[in-house]
Amino acid sequence: MIGPGDVPGEFVDAPCPLCSSAARRTVVERCPDRLLGHPGEFAIVECRDCQVRYLAPRPVGETLVGYYRPCGERSYSDNESHRPKRVSAELRAVLSADRGYPEAGAGASTASGLAHGRKALARFNDQHRLLPWRGTGRLLDVGAGGGAYLETMQSLGWKIEGTNVVPEVCADVRARLGVPCHHGELEALNLPPASYDAISLWHVLEHLPSPPKVLAEAKRLLAPGGILAIGVPVYDSPEAERLRDAWIGYDVPRHLLTFSRPVLRALVERMGFRVLGLWSEPRDRILRLSYERGRGYLGMKLLMRQTVLRRAYARKLSRQDRIGTVVLWAEPNPAP
After folding, report:
1. What is the domain range of residue 41?
2. % of the chain beyond a pLDDT of 70
3. Is 78 within a domain?
């Protein structure tokens, strides 16, 4: 076993990053970097008090940044430029009618057209990433990656800004979209209070050394009536239970901690938000990548290679609220 102590860099074996408890149990004893293949193996432990799961020990500083860099021919794809999601005219009409969006071109605005559009929205994988319109539509996407989500939301009328810890990626987003992309961690940017009507953290919270600090800053930055949106992998799911360290939701060592549905809800409420909803997301790509890496499960691997069957299975798990990715919407509680 090559532990973090055998790899050059800085690691900390600190208490729980959510509640500071030192009481824990080991869930996975030896977990390698299966995505990029960087050296080192880590334990995944579960806090006995708040039930969040986290790495022990955890890389910090430049050591953590190094785990996002390419290793051989493999590179971390989240910061690469991807095509934005296409939102059809019928979906735009439904967003205008049901979620308060500005009228976005001609759509199916008749009763039958809206009914058809609502069915299309229910089948849209990212339906809960198309946030309800708030205020004047000022959106900050934290950890914006290559900017695909920002570009989608810009096409729907949002006034967009992003953040990223990689300066080159920030520069690319600024040049491509012509909008602000702030370099650095959210809590260190010193942005003006009440600057945004919506803040999104899509698969960001699990990467952070201290999620409570980021949520506190998000609350400060939200205008009255604003909305917070979070997407994370969750371990209360069949793929996490069956595949253990092969489950891509752990993504050791870039994912410093992993939530369950109750843990995520409790954290957001503790940080002064009221949860508006928590939904499962049918992310079939995550299922495919996880089962490809797992040992055995030949039948599941064959199923995952069939796109239609894989997507149907993901939707089934999502309807049962058992799949390993969720989206949460919340709004700040009024100050007492």
Report:
1. 4-66
2. 95
3. no
